[in-house]
């Protein structure tokens, strides 16, 4: 493709240079090439697309000769500009496929199917291993002016297991905001990720109309699927729900011990917005602090 375009440009430049107006050849040949490239990449190989969650992703490739594919932080940082450029309704140029909405399926990445939870998923959700191991924690220190949060290493590493019978379900997004939960099924949504019959992860969300808040009640990824983009994709679907409901922000709670989750949320654009040093008192997680994080819905 590259060679063909270069040969076309040289041929056009040579054809124009035979005439009297050689100045036209200096701009018409490159302009024709740019137009051709734009049409080829827009119509044939895709353009920036809008995956679930609102982050823009390059097509394949976004610009000629670069070979760049996948998420581009530069586009993510200019989310509003990107949203104006993308065509609504497009899914990933590579990876994410559209699926029938009436089946509850939201999309497919590789072999992983993302869909709305069904009653038959309850047992798999209860069995999912949400434990984690960390060699650092986010230490909360009271100061004269408030609190300071900083990450510090721990030795030996901490291995956290959430008991099956623990009602408050502490962990990443462990404290559910019940204000959005009620008889209206439109205020709650659970999205699951399955590879065949294997549950890779899930996210539970609730929407509170009074303050336009979408709460991540729980988000978990099976240990063998962590670091493979499952958690980020689930979070993207949560932001899709937030936009559907008109939420102003997405909010979650996480233990200061769950440093892997905190770091992941920070990478996703969440920021600290509060804390509670006594929330877990009287539970098996006494001594841990609850960190509150939020992210605006653009």
Mean pLDDT: 76
Low-pLDDT runs: 44-101, 166-181
Number of strands: 11
| Biggest sheet character | 9 strands, mixed
Structural class: alpha+beta
Helix-strand string: HHHHEEEHEEEEEHEHEE
Cross-sheet strand order for the largest sheet: 1-2-3-6-7-8-9-11-10
Question: How much helicity do the residues have?
Answer: 25-40%
Radius of gyration: 24 Å
* Count of individual helical segments: 7
Q: Which outline best applies?
A: extended
CA-CA gap between termini: 38 Å
Characterization of this structure:
By secondary structure, this protein is an alpha+beta fold. It is built from seven helices and eleven strands. The chain has helices spanning 2-17, 23-44, 73-77, 79-85, 122-127, 230-245, 259-267, and strands spanning 96-97, 105-109, 112-116, 132-143, 146-160, 188-195, 198-208, 213-221, 249-255, 271-276, 290-296. A nine-stranded mixed sheet has the order 1-2-3-6-7-8-9-11-10, covered by helices on one side. β4 and β5 (146-160) form a beta hairpin. α1 runs antiparallel to α2. The protein is extended. 30% of the residues are buried. Residues 44-101 and 166-181 have low confidence and may be disordered.
């Amino acid at each position: 493709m590259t060679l063909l375009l270069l040969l076309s440009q040289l041929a056009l430049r040579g054809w124009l240079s035979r005439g009297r107006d050689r100045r036209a050849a200096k701009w018409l040949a490159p302009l024709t090439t740019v137009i051709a490239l734009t049409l080829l990449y827009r119509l044939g190989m895709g353009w920036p697309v809008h995956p679930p969650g609102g982050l823009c992703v390059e097509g394949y490739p976004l610009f000629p000769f670069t070979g760049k594919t996948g998420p581009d932080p530069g586009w993510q940082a200019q989310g509003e500009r990107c949203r104006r450029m993308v065509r609504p309704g497009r899914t990933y140029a590579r990876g994410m496929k559209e699926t029938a909405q009436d089946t509850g399926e939201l999309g497919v990445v590789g072999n992983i199917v993302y869909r709305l939870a069904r009653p038959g998923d309850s047992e798999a959700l209860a069995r999912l291993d949400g434990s984690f191991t960390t060699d650092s924690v986010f230490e909360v220190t009271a100061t004269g002016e408030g609190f300071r949060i900083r990450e510090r290493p721990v030795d030996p590493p901490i291995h956290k297991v959430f008991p099956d019978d623990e009602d408050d379900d502490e962990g990443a997004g462990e404290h559910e905001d019940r204000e959005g939960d009620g008889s209206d099924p439109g205020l709650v949504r659970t999205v699951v990720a399955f590879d065949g019959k294997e549950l890779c992860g899930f996210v539970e969300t609730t929407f509170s109309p009074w303050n336009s808040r979408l709460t991540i009640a729980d988000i978990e990824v099976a240990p063998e699927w962590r670091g493979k983009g499952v958690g980020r994709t689930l979070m993207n679907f949560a932001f899709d729900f937030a936009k559907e409901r008109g939420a102003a922000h997405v909010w979650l709670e996480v233990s200061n011990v769950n440093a892997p989750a905190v770091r992941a949320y920070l990478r996703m654009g969440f920021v600290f917005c509060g804390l509670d040093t006594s929330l877990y008192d009287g539970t098996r997680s006494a001594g841990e602090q609850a960190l509150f994080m939020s992210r605006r819905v653009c």
